[in-house]
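Module 6 notes. Inverse folding takes a fixed backbone as the condition and produces residue identities as the prediction. Think of it as a translation problem where the source language is geometry and the target language is the twenty amino acids. Below is one complete input and output pair. Work through it position by position during the lab.
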């Protein structure tokens, strides 16, 4: 009984350790730096609703000419084969995507530009 009283007194007397905020552990990408389009691969959902632009990872512009695009994208039919830059599996829903990208019609508002290719070996990043 005496020892429990001393232990309770010591615990009440010692200052508590500061607790870290669990919500501050994952910073937003936009606060850290710019988006690197060469690191985007896997399952991707293309968002077109402007109200959900803030929930997207990056903003992308679909270029008609391959010469002006930053990434040449090949649409994979299977998610398992989308394992390199430029190989994207386009998901029908946002919940199953690794990346959600907002598609804009204004090139000036986009983080990077993409174009689609029918040939798998052409997919990837352009050397800058």
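Target side of the pair, the amino acids:
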């Amino acid at each position: 009984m005496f020892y429990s009283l001393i232990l309770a007194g010591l615990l009440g007397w010692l200052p508590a350790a500061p607790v870290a905020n669990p919500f501050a552990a994952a910073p937003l990408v936009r606060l850290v730096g710019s988006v690197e389009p060469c690191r985007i691969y896997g399952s991707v959902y293309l968002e077109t609703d402007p109200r959900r632009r803030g929930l997207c990872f990056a903003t992308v512009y679909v270029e008609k000419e391959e010469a002006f695009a930053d990434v040449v994208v090949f649409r994979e039919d299977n998610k398992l084969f989308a394992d390199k830059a430029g190989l994207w599996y386009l998901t029908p829903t946002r919940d199953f995507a690794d990346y959600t990208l907002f598609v804009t019609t204004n090139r000036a508002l986009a983080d990077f530009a993409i174009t689609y290719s029918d040939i798998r070996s052409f997919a990837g990043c352009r050397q800058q």
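Reference fact for the lab report: Strands lie at 42-47, 58-62, 71-75, 87-90, 99-104, 112-117, 124-125.
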